[in-house]
Amino acid sequence: MKNLSEISSKVPRSTIRKMFALASTIENPISFAIGEPDFCTPPNIIEAGKAALSRGETHYTPNSGIAPLREAISRDRHTLNLDYDPETEIIVTAGGMEALYLSLITLLNPGDEVIISNPYWTNYYGQILMCGAIPVPVDVYEEEGFIIRPEDLEHAINHKTKLLILTSPSNPTGGVAGYDRLEKIAKICCEKDIYVISDEVYRHLIYDDDTFVSIASMPGMKERTVIIDSFSKTFAMTGWRVGMALSGAPIIGTMVKFQENVAACVNTAAQYAAVEALNCSQDSVRNMLSVYKERRLVLVDGLNSIDGLSCIMPKGAFYAFPNIKKTGLTSEEFSMKLLKDAGVITVPGTGFGTAGEGFIRLSYATSIENIKEGLLRIRQFMTDL
User: Fold this and answer.
1) With 70 as the cut, is the pLDDT of residue 295 above it?
2) Would you say 255 and 106 are in contact if contact means Cβ atoms under 8 Å apart?
3) Are 91 and 250 in contact (CB under 8 A)?
4) In the chain, how long is the greatest CA-to-CA distance?
5) What DSSP character marks residue 30?
6) Are 234 and 200 within 8 A, CB to CB?
7) Which of 3, 202, 344, 383 gives a 20 to 30 Å CA spacing to 35?
8) Rounded Cα–Cα distance for residues 231 and 250 (Å)
9) Residue 135 bridge partners (DSSP)
């Protein structure tokens, strides 16, 4: 038989899933591995999906998504002083991951270079390779809040550079890019004529006095930015698989064409549930954010109280990215030993790129009880170590 495609051999497997799978071999594990809300979807959103099925909403929708959902997305972005035409500048996708993929295949040619922060969400790297393009990781640093420095971005740009993927808040680090930093990045992107994919999946999960800013709101950036977003994290709707992309009409029109060839459309009832998610009271979102905030403090304070570990306070998302360099172990060694000796599942920082060496990622999208038990085990593990 002929060999599989060259691309298939280049795309790496997820380290997150590897660690999650290993959990099945451990008795009574405490998992900090998966970045998924432990909340159920709010009941009113579930009822909206059920009601759609009951009234016969079981057929194809337009490739770009149902009009009520695109209109609701448009209104939602207007609160951020961003105006997108629901007819031509918004597409509903099968989660944020499909929005990312459709964006990449719309913008990239084989051999184009894509700048990503290092550490990075692993699917960026994989999907860039799937498009035949070249990922260019640019290191970000703990002392900078894990946000790309404008001078490092500028240095990485060359004649092959087509776009930058910007994530704020960030997975895996919890970093948030402020207005001043984004303004400098936007100026570089305009001057160098490169596109930006702005991953805003965690935009509702920001703590303390930090606020969310979209780079698309900067002068000259709307036309060269594709916003990708999802209902998964904000509304605890990971299994519903509803996401979105927003950009200028030429980009979105091409993505709609690809949508027809990839998935045709997103699950119809799930789209009506998403309409309810945007149009209803946002109390459930605020309540989940409050719980995440409490968990964040317990986890980070607990990690910083353990000799040999340190962790900056994440500004957004629901991940902590503690520094384990004082242990003398690599990230892979630390995570595997912690799993085997203490039954605690984390993800080695190198699962998110070379700049993740010396760090591990913990998701605090789990109960306070699990966090406290996990911290007790980590403390004993460090004492034994």
Assistant:
1) yes
2) yes
3) no
4) 61
5) E
6) no
7) 383
8) 24
9) 114
